[in-house]
Specification:
Order of helices and strands of chain A: HEEEEHEEEEEHEEHEHEHHHEHE
Largest sheet of chain B: none
Structural class of chain A: alpha/beta
Number of strands of chain B: 0
Shape of chain A: globular
Oligomer: heterodimer
Distance between the termini of chain A: 51 Å
Number of helices of chain B: 2
Helix content of chain A: 25-40%
CATH topology of chain A: Aminopeptidase
Strand content of chain B: under 5%
Chain lengths: ~375, ~50
């Protein structure tokens, strides 16, 4: 083979790789995720309504507002702060598609960092999408990553200096929504996004913000509620009630006062609301995992993570049954519902009553897909896209 | 300022991509040709705003 023919062969092989991977990345970034909103959703607004600095950006996300028949408290559920933790997004999805409010007001966000839903971990070989089986077919979702897409915010600094605390954080966390609270109006896209959320929380007089996450089993902050001190009594009661009544363990931890940029710290410090962060176990995130594929993501089964547990390296139990997505989502729906119930008991003058949302046992028994609604049957004006 | 820095970075990506492609045609060793193709791919994906 002559050098020129060899170069042509290698060049076309490289071009083929570029084209096929490029098509995959392009399609994944633009995958439309349908949301058939519940009859309880009275308004759908964009985040830019509260701060024009995110208008026209990838992070100008939808916000689904549900209003009860009677006044009460205002809660906000943030899904998709870290899109690679899908139980948080999917639990919020169940609220947007099913919840009916009797008392109070609920603001649901499915893609808090929408930019991060459009990219997967560079070099991580993540699947670009995953699907949830339902009675009417499969619904596809973007896999997403922990950080905003570098196509939307780039380059990263050598060291990320958090505003306004001045705390030094890892460079990549300049694109981590949960290290950029409370944000600033002239900052990076991620900082402007958290600033817009802070403006929404202040203007809508939100009482409680619940930020839904998942964690690797090797991380000590897992299967727990992280609470700002303003909501410590509420978090403690929710933790005890869930552990006692629902059949799964839920701890409670205080938000460290000197660890900045996190929702459970800064929302409480910079607004009248209190921030709670819920963590569910996700073996997909563990560094010792085996195959990084959709099966592992959705079943949570992984022999290597189980073996790590046998060596005492984990902070949560795991066995051959893994941590299926139904269990992880069910933990979140129960935890949110219990927060509403406990809040109402503690604040009878400002109740929060929500119907039509399945608890842990229901989601595990029937499957998450039973609570995702068929876009083909949506009434006109009741379908939105993430 | 962010826009200017981002623009400069994209210029750097374009420059490095061009140098790598030049090296691909210049080298006579097949191992270096393969290496160059592998290295240039992420630069081109970023340059075309695909990843």
């Amino acid at each position: 083979m002559t050098p020129m023919i060899r170069k042509l062969v290698f060049g076309f092989a490289g071009l083929a790789l570029l084209v096929f991977s490029g098509i995959s990345f392009y399609q994944s970034r633009r995958l439309k995720e349908p949301v058939v909103v519940s009859d309880g959703v009275t308004q759908v607004v964009r985040l830019s309504k509260y701060f024009s600095g995110v208008e026209g950006t990838a992070n100008d996300c939808n916000m689904y507002i549900l209003e009860g028949k009677e006044p009460g408290a205002t809660f906000c559920i943030l899904g998709g702060t870290h899109p690679e933790e899908p139980a948080g997004r999917l639990a919020a999805w169940i609220f947007a598609e099913n919840a009916v409010l009797q008392k109070g007001r609920l603001i649901v966000v499915l893609s808090a960092n929408r930019s991060a839903t459009t990219v997967t971990r560079v070099g991580g070989a993540y699947p670009p999408e995953f699907s949830i089986p339902t009675s009417w077919g499969e619904q596809g979702f973007r896999m997403g990553d922990r950080w905003s897409n570098p196509l939307d915010q780039w380059p990263d600094p050598e060291v990320y200096i958090h505003y306004p605390s001045g705390q030094y954080l890892a460079y990549v966390d300049v694109r981590n929504l949960n290290r950029c609270w409370p944000g600033r109006p002239n900052g990076t896209l991620t900082e402007r996004t958290t600033y817009a959320f802070m403006e929404m929380i202040r203007k809508e007089k939100v009482d409680i913000v619940i930020d839904l996450h998942e964690a690797e089993l090797q991380y000590p902050v897992i299967s727990t509620i992280v609470s700002h001190e303003k909501a410590q009594d509420l978090a403690a009661i929710v933790s005890m009630t869930l552990t006692d009544m629902e059949g799964f363990k839920m701890g409670m931890e205080f938000s460290p006062k000197n660890l900045h940029g996190l929702s459970h710290r800064e929302i409480g410090d910079f607004s009248d609301a209190a921030g709670l962060l819920f963590e569910a176990p996700e073996p997909f995130l563990d560094a010792t995992r085996g195959k990084t594929n959709t099966e592992q993501l959705l079943t949570g089964k992984d022999d290597f993570v189980v073996r790590a547990g046998q060596h005492g390296l984990l902070f949560e139990k795991i066995d051959a049954n893994g941590w299926p997505i139904d269990k992880r989502v069910g933990r979140h729906t129960s935890a949110v519902l219990q927060t509403m119930v406990s809040w109402t008991e503690m604040h009878p003058d400002k109740p929060m009553v929500c119907d039509s949302i399945p608890r842990y046992a229901d989601v595990v028994a029937r499957g998450l897909g039973q609570y995702l609604r068929n876009p083909a049957l949506a009434k006109p004006g009741r379908i939105w896209y993430e | 300022m962010d826009i200017i820095i981002t623009f400069i970075y994209y210029c750097l990506v374009a420059f490095v991509s061009a140098v790598l492609i030049y090296n691909f045609f210049k080298t006579k060793e097949w191992q270096k040709e393969v290496l160059t193709i592998i290295v240039v791919l992420p630069f081109l994906l970023r340059l075309f705003m695909l990843k």
